[in-house]
Design brief:
It is a single chain. The chain contains four helices and five strands; from the N terminus they run E-H-E-H-E-H-E-H-E. It is of the alpha/beta class. The protein has a five-stranded parallel β-sheet with strand order 3-2-1-4-5, sandwiched between helices. Helix 3 crosses helix 4. It starts with a strand and ends in a 5-residue tail after the last strand.
Length: about 120
């Protein structure tokens, strides 16, 4: 099973762009492996998983303002992930996940989005 973390999708405010990029990143994997998406509760990720019949596992911290709780959530989510797709919204939570994935040497696709 290929486990991919997807974060920051809602920040694009453009589901079509989000979907296109996720398809580009995952198209070869879904041909050869079962894919499981890990999410922190992004509605675009949930919509994508339902649309394409991909299982999803949510990692939501009960204490959104507690740094240690967020760190534990990120650590747990990335502990067995194979890859990260991050829509770089420059938010502290997304940046922390990107940095943790880099520390763990998890292959990452960082997608920049500009509405202009």
């Amino acid at each position: 099973m290929f486990k991919v973390v997807i974060v920051g999708g809602e920040s694009t405010n453009n589901y079509d762009f989000f979907e296109k990029k996720c398809i580009q990143c995952l198209k070869n994997k879904v041909k050869t492996d079962t894919v499981m998406i890990y999410s922190i509760g992004d509605s675009y990720v949930e919509r994508f998983s339902k649309r394409f019949g991909i299982d999803i596992r949510f990692f939501v911290s009960k204490y959104k303002r507690k740094t240690s709780a967020l760190n534990r959530r990120n650590e747990e989510m990335l502990s067995d992930a194979n890859a990260l797709i991050a829509f770089n919204d420059k938010l502290k939570s997304t940046t922390a996940i990107i940095e943790k994935a880099n520390e763990k040497k998890i292959p990452s696709r960082i997608i920049e989005y500009s509405s202009t």
